[in-house]
Design brief:
The chain is of the alpha+beta class. The chain contains 52 helices and 28 strands. A hairpin with a 7-residue loop joins strand 11 and strand 12. It starts with a strand and ends with a helix.
């Protein structure tokens, strides 16, 4: 059965003038569970359809709750907005407590994992800020591939580096130079008043540079002020310093012969490799006057072979402890057959500075800082300022020395500058955020605007929706700050835009649904916003919950920066969901009030200029001439809709006063009349269409059916783009320009994505060849994705996180290209007996020899570490003691004056027992050795020996980089000190074993190295040595070892969560599995696209892969829900789903792209490459999967509909409309026909607008249906308490009822008889418009009269067939009657009043509403009480319940 209900005209899609209510009932027929799941469930309960009761029951509950929520928000819109804005503003204040985290280590180290525990142990033991930091300068050729192995490049490098190391800054009333901040080796404290100051001034900073292979490297060491050395005179610095020569001359000086331990110092220099320093190294410029005569090329004046000198690395002034590996100082080398370097493309120098904690501790006891509040924070600021000045000086000096540097790039790097970049990277880009939100506002307004109807336009709603999303995002971020989630670069740079795109998606779906239901007069005004939530709220909840699940699953990736990002994004999605379901409905209710007040969109203070010019029929045949009367007509519909709002009562009171006290009279002017014909359209669409016809006499048009056929065009010939509004606006379109503009506006308003999807795209997609192509395309995309996945590499380029314009970008690019060099430490922890397990420690160190990426010595072994240096020092002392013991210089009780300093120190060490109660035992001198034959240090006195080594072999201790903790105690050897007790150092809990790594150019090799090192650490940990590795590769690359595992785990978790959510809400495992399968395909396609586009897999793309599941839900769930809730076959349901759901899906995709567009303008390549491009690819793939592949799959293997009709495959029976409401009772003073009432209040509906019974025939049509359909006790024209507002106060109700015969395929066909019930109304509207005229006093009145005469006739044919013998189900049909505009009314009225038999009761279909005072239940009972089962009665009752 198809029912089309008319009465109030509203322009539908394509310019068709639909009877208000026909389109809404179309949703109830074809998308029943979407519009009202309760109705669908009722159809199933009454046997009229089949389907999933559980699904509909769940949806009914959800829709009911959403309806109540929307109704509440509409009823208390002002209160909801006030409270919501107050709460949102409160959360926004929480942004003040936000913490910005820029520490790279804390951002990228696995939270709660092994690495975090290891780094925490290091920080706890050494202290925060401990260690060293590096200033780096790289030289590269401007011509790529050029060779830099020639003296000019090294001299240019030396000139710039010399200027940079001379930088000084003024802070805290002190001058700070490199010597005050750098990391320098330590010399033994000799406690000599002359020698110690000289050594302190000569101790240089540690500078790792290729210049150390040449004499020019000495120019970097200073000191700035030359020193005076006895025997050599003044002006001594490293350019002319020969340490061995100094010692020899000092030995010859008699005054130092007995006062200085020359033998001890000479032995120290020998062990450290301090010989002639730079005096015997070649000069890059032999013509330099300062080049020493001892230089090998001084006499020849020939430049040195740079490549040969750099082969094997360079050595500092202490050759044994200062060896700079070749890979550390020269990049992109090429060697000949003998292994000598012949070409190189880069040179690198590094200056080691103290860490902030080291600098603080170094200066804490100095008198220079006693006057200030010296702290570690001030030390950090001083370091940062000097590093900035270093970088600036390099750039300035490069420009100044243009002639020397014009062929080279000087690339400086400072950790302070990188920290500043990361800090800037984490700042909120306010301008881009503002521009992004402005663009979104513009897009929302353009998407929802209706240029041809400023009243029904929703641009203001879109504007308010975007602002609401913006405020919600700010409030959500404030809420995250209150919860303690730290902000980082991903939060500030990406999340505002991503949250905007996701939030606006829900807003577009709500606004799209609101546009479909806002003007539906058959929905109670108080429930229209609730109806929006009831229909769209389920999809909004589904997508938001799935998005939140995706972000929560993304938090499984144990990277703090991304875990915080995912948690914040999930909370933002949930906050936006609450805001969308509570605050946005309140905004929609305000827009609804504006619509009913006929106010212009956005500029709501301006009345709408294109309201329908359809007026109620007056008793006198024309309208009142007062302007107040026109305002009263406009506001009467709003008064009926908003039920007694104060402003309506004010207008009504004003109008009543004007009617009782008229102020002017306008003479009636006869103008040509325009006539229209309105006819009902056939089912299933239903509705009415109005066509302007040539002027003719009203009596000729309405006289008979023949005359009607001659004067009115056929239904097929009626144009569908004309409405009654054209009657008033026709003269306004007189000019060609106006017509062109109107045509453009009409085309703009008529075209829609939904119509195009339903009429062109959907049917085309359902063609067999198109489906086949789509399936082939799906398999091709999966195959291409499989190839791409196989090519995806792990890693994250450091250049991606730095702006291309920054100097650091060029440096990082060069370092990544030319130097794959890193340093690492193997850390041993406490709870380990170092004295007794020395062999295990040696084995542990030697095990790293098998790691190919660790640099070896020239002999293929590893450099010495602290325990081996400690042992070698003791072996040297033992050898000196053995010599003195054999010569008698040392005895068991004492030593003699001719004993060596080393022998005396060894004697003191040998007598140590290691026991606090008996520390000295002289008998041990001849019983034990410092180091036994197996190379094991005496375990009992191990910590006594350690005290002596750390102080008296300071250069070796500092060069070992052991950082022993607790620090060994301080004890200085003095041969004249006869106190033999040496303090015992505390047991060790932390030691470091340094290694140099090379050939680490990509993530694969780095992770391979990490795996090898971790395997060694694990093996020795099992043997009882607690240890772990640490260093830059482990901090930033170890996450890739388990990244894919966490990625797969998180994707499985989010897919499972989405499946459970969809299965619970939709109660359809088939649909949930299909959606999850397509989401998995989307993730796989995106992953494969990474390999095709060259995007490396790191934590950021991994999180975006996880998030793609949630974003993909936006593209899949809407279409799937539309498919499930539609009625019909698979292909029909696919087309309906695309018709109604493609618009919000495409708007959502466009809004996501528009929100992400601002990421494209970020100065950070990281944001553009890993966020914008990935989100762009995700959106494109989502649209392809959601609007191409998914519809095809649904048409082939889609689940059945939630409700399947029994009689008709494509639609369910449509419930009849409620009775047409009547104008308010207070307006009855306009009526002149109350005396014609037949039954008192039962005539109230018609008497309010008719002047005769003949005029009431237009009301009779709708009223008859109201009486038959059961619209309530008031009958067809309705009672004054109806909740269904009327736009123009007309009582006209046009109804077409068509009940088709049963299908021939039904098994019960033989048990039923064919029947037909048809009501075909035809309406002729005559409109007369009076132009403005002048009053009697000469004033011009702007009022005009519009007189509309409506006459309706209807031919009603009703056949009733009784139940055939043997029928299983009863047949219930109505009786026949005939009604015209005047004839037959009284007889039908009597039948309806009496209700004496079945045929009389059924005759109400054609009755006048004035006599339909009986309720629907009584009418149905009289009609179906005989020969009908209860089921049949409920069928009809349900059909007309709406």
């Amino acid at each position: 059965m198809a029912v089309a209900v008319g009465g109030e005209e509203s322009a539908g899609e394509g310019g068709v003038v639909w009877a208000s209510g026909s389109r809404p009932h179309e949703d109830l027929c074809t998308r029943t569970s979407w519009a009202d799941a309760r109705t669908a469930l009722a159809h199933i309960n009454k046997g009229r359809a089949t389907g999933s009761r559980a699904t509909l029951w769940v949806r009914t509950k959800l829709q009911y709750q959403l309806l109540q929520l929307g109704t509440f928000s509409q009823r208390h819109a002002g209160k909801v907005l006030f409270v919501a804005l107050l709460v949102l503003a409160t959360f926004c204040v929480g942004l003040k407590s936000a913490t910005l985290l820029t520490n790279v280590q804390k951002l990228w180290v696995e939270e709660g994992g092994r690495l975090e525990q290891e780094l925490a142990y290091v920080e706890k033991t050494l202290g925060e800020g401990y260690g060293t930091t590096k200033q780096i300068l790289i030289l590269t050729p401007k011509d790529p591939g050029a060779n830099v192995l020639h003296p000019k490049s090294l001299l240019a490098h030396a000139a710039v580096l010399k200027a940079a190391t001379s930088v000084k800054i003024e802070m805290y009333e002190m001058t700070w130079s490199l010597a005050d901040l750098c990391y320098a080796p330590s010399f033994p404290e000799l406690e000599h008043p002359i020698i110690d100051p000289i050594l302190e001034k000569l101790t240089p900073c540690t500078i790792i540079t290729p210049l150390d292979c040449f004499w020019e490297g000495s120019k970097l060491l200073g000191p700035e002020t030359p020193v005076t050395i006895p025997g050599l005179g003044p002006g001594v610095n490293w350019t002319n310093l020969n340490p061995q020569k100094i010692v020899d001359k000092m030995k010859m000086a008699q005054k130092y012969k007995n006062a200085f331990p020359f033998s001890f110092f000479a032995d120290f220099m020998k062990r450290a490799g301090v010989t002639t320093a730079y005096q015997e190294k070649p000069c890059l410029d032999p013509s330099d006057p300062m080049c020493p005569s001892t230089a090998p090329n001084k006499e020849s004046k020939q430049p040195p072979d740079v490549g040969a000198e750099l082969t094997g690395g360079c050595y500092g002034f202490a050759g044994k402890y200062m060896h700079w590996p070749e890979d550390l100082i020269v990049g992109a080398t090429q060697t000949n057959k003998t292994g000598h370097i012949v070409r190189a493309e880069a040179l690198q120098s590094m200056i080691q500075l103290m860490g902030a904690r080291n600098l603080y501790e170094y200066w804490s006891d100095d008198y220079k800082v006693q006057y200030m509040d010296w702290s570690q924070e001030k030390a950090a600021r001083i370091l940062g300022a000097w590093q900035h000045k270093f970088t600036q000086t390099v750039l300035e000096e490069t420009t100044r020395l243009h002639n020397e540097t014009k062929f080279y790039n000087m690339l400086p790097f400072s950790s302070a500058n990188l920290d500043d970049l990361l800090r800037d990277f984490s700042e909120v880009p306010a301008s881009r955020v503002a521009l992004g939100y402005v663009l979104m506002v513009v897009y929302a307004c353009l998407s929802l605007v209706r240029l041809n109807n400023c009243v029904h336009s929703s641009a203001g709603l879109g504007f308010a929706g975007v602002l609401l999303v913006a405020v919600t995002v700010a409030a959500g971020l404030g809420f995250c700050a209150l919860l303690g989630f730290p902000f980082n670069a991903s939060t500030t740079q990406v999340l505002p835009f991503l949250a905007l795109g996701l939030g606006v998606d829900d807003m577009f779906l709500m606004a799209h649904t609101f546009a479909e239901t806002a003007d539906n007069s058959h929905i109670p005004y108080q429930e229209r916003v609730g109806e929006v939530l009831k229909r769209a709220g389920v999809s909004v909840v589904l997508t938001s919950v799935c998005n939140a699940c995706a972000f929560f699953a993304g938090a499984l990736v144990p990277v703090p920066a991304l875990r915080s990002f995912c948690m914040q994004a999930a909370l933002l999605v949930l906050v936006n969901l609450v805001s969308t379901l509570t605050v946005f409905p309140a905004i929609m209710s305000l827009d609804l009030r504006r619509r009913h007040a006929h106010r212009t969109d956005i500029l709501c203070c301006i009345p709408g200029g294109n309201r329908d010019q359809v007026a109620p029929i007056a008793a006198s045949g024309h309208y009142s001439s007062s302007s107040s009367g026109r305002r009263q007509r406009d506001s009467s519909s709003a008064a009926a809709a908003e039920e007694g709002r104060s402003w309506t009562r004010h207008h009504h009171h004003h109008h009543t006063s004007r009617q009782h006290h008229p102020t002017s009279t306008v003479p009636k002017v006869e103008l040509p009349k325009k006539t229209t014909v309105t006819r009902a359209l056939p089912p299933p669409g239903g509705g009415t269409v109005t066509q302007v016809v040539p002027p003719t006499s009203p009596r000729e048009c309405w006289a008979s059916s023949d005359a009607r056929a001659q004067s009115a065009p056929s239904l097929e010939s009626l144009a569908t783009n004309n409405s009654t509004r054209d009657l008033v606006n026709r003269e306004k379109l007189s000019s060609g320009l106006n017509r062109a503009w109107a045509s453009a506006l009409q085309y703009w308003s008529d075209w829609s994505i939904g119509r195009w999807m339903g009429t062109i795209y959907g049917p085309t997609l359902m063609r067999g060849e198109v489906k086949a192509a789509a399936i082939i395309g799906l398999f091709v995309s999966v195959g291409a994705a499989a190839w791409g996945v196989s090519n995806v590499e792990d890693g994250l380029d450091l250049t991606d996180v730095v702006p291309r314009s920054a100097p650091e970008f060029a440096f990082l690019s060069a370092q990544q290209k030319y130097f794959g060099f890193y340093n690492m430490f193997a850390v041993t922890q406490g709870n380990f007996e170092y004295p007794t397990k020395q062999r295990l420690l040696h084995d542990y160190y030697e095990a790293f020899t098998r790691v190919n990426y660790i640099i070896k010595n020239d002999d293929g072994g590893l450099p010495e570490f602290w325990l081996s240096l400690f042992r070698d020092w003791l072996i040297g002392l033992q050898n000196a003691f053995d010599h003195d013991w054999r010569t008698g210089c040392i005895t068991q009780e004492t030593w003699h004056s001719n004993a060596s300093d080393e022998g005396i120190l060894a004697y003191k060490l040998l007598v140590q027992t290691g026991h606090a109660d008996n520390p000295i035992d002289l008998s041990l001198v001849s019983q034990i050795r410092l180091v036994n034959s197996e190379g094991i240090i005496n375990p009992k006195a191990f910590y006594n020996y350690l005290t002596a080594w750390a102080t008296n072999d300071a250069l070796a201790y500092t060069a070992s980089q052991a950082d022993l903790r607790p620090e060994p105690r301080h004890w200085t050897h003095d041969r004249y000190d006869f106190d033999l007790k040496i303090p015992k150092s505390p047991p060790l809990v932390y030691t470091q074993l340094p290694f140099y790594l090379h050939q680490l150019s990509d993530t694969a090799t780095i992770t391979t190295m990490i795996g090898e090192v971790r395997a060694i650490c694990k093996r020795f940990e099992d043997r009882g040595l607690p240890n772990f590795p640490t260093g830059v590769p482990f901090t930033f690359w170890e996450q890739y070892i388990k990244l894919r595992f966490y990625l797969v785990l998180a994707i499985l978790a989010v897919l499972t969560a989405v499946f459970l959510v969809l299965a619970v809400v939709l109660m359809n495992l088939w649909a949930a599995a299909l959606v999850v399968l397509l989401l998995a395909t989307l993730v796989f396609q995106l992953f494969g696209l990474f390999g095709i586009l060259g995007v490396k897999l790191s934590a950021v793309p991994a999180v975006l892969l996880i998030v793609s599941v949630g974003v993909g839900v936006e593209f899949c769930v809407h279409v799937t829900v539309g498919f499930l809730t539609a009625v019909g076959g698979r292909e029909r349901r696919v087309v309906l789903a695309l018709q109604h759901m493609a618009t919000p899906v495409l708007h959502g995709a466009a809004s996501t792209l528009l929100a992400s567009l601002m990421l494209l303008f970020s100065e950070f390549e990281f944001i553009r490459k890993y966020f914008f491009y990935v989100l762009l690819a995700l959106t494109v793939l989502g649209v392809l999967d959601g609007l191409i592949f998914l519809p095809v799959l649904l048409s082939l293997v889609g689940p059945p509909a939630e409700v399947v009709p029994r009689n008709h495959l494509d639609r369910l029976p449509t419930p009849s409309p409620p009775p047409s409401p009547q104008a308010s009772q207070s307006h009855s003073h306009h009526s002149h026909s109350s005396r014609r009432s037949h039954h008192g209040s039962s005539m109230r509906g018609c008497s309010g607008r008719s002047s005769s019974s003949r005029r009431s025939s237009g009301c009779a049509v709708g009223g008859a249906v109201g009486g038959a359909g059961g619209g309530g006790g008031g009958g067809g024209c309705g009672s004054s308490s109806s909740m269904y507002p009327r736009l123009h106060g007309s009582n006209l109700s046009l109804t077409t009822i068509t009940e088709e015969p049963p299908s021939s395929t039904r098994s019960s066909q033989s048990l039923r008889s064919s029947h037909e019930i048809v009501v075909e109304p035809q309406v002729v509207v005559e409109t007369t418009t009076t132009t403005p005229s002048a009053g009697g006093n000469g004033d011009t009145h702007l009022d005009h009269h519009v007189t509309t005469k409506v006459t309706a006739t209807a031919k009603v044919k009703v056949e009733l067939h009784t139940q055939l013998p043997g029928a299983v189900e009863p047949t219930y049909r109505t009786s026949s009657s005939s009604s015209s505009s005047s004839g037959g009314t009284r007889r039908s009225s009597r039948r309806s009043s009496n209700g004496s038999n079945c045929s009389n009761g059924a005759g109400g279909v054609g009755n006048s509403p004035c006599n339909s005072s009986s309720s629907s239940s009584s009418s149905s009972s009289s009609c179906y009480g005989t020969g009908s089962s209860p089921k049949g009665s409920s069928d009809v009752e349900e059909c007309f319940s709406k």
